[in-house]
Amino acid sequence: MFLTVFLIVVVLLAIALAGLAITILVKKGGKFPEIHIGRNKAMKKLGIHCANTTDRLERENYKPIER
User: Fold this and answer.
1) CA–CA separation, 53 vs 63, rounded Å?
2) How many angstroms separate the CA atoms of 57 and 23, rounded?
């Protein structure tokens, strides 16, 4: 039972990886999509930064609370 499920999972993963590889090879200029937030065009359009950039911007604009 375990061996059957394991083989099915391996075959499905192989099909998925082959599909990704074929898409990248066939598509002109094909490459993996950029997943890093700092270099993602769609995230830049929305004004979303990575955690490091957000932290740096917050530190630059920090103003202590006066009581």
Assistant:
1) 18
2) 38
Q: Give the model confidence (pLDDT) of 26-37 as tens digits.
A: 877 777 776 778
The first and second tokens of residue 53, run together, are 């950039």
- What contacts 9, CB < 8 A, 6 or more positions away? none
SS (H, E, C) 1-67: CHHHHHHHHHHHHHHHHHHHHHHHHHCCCCCCCCCCHHHCHHHHHHCCCCHHHHHHHHHHCCCCCCC
pTM: 0.45
* Assigned token pair, 66: 């006066």
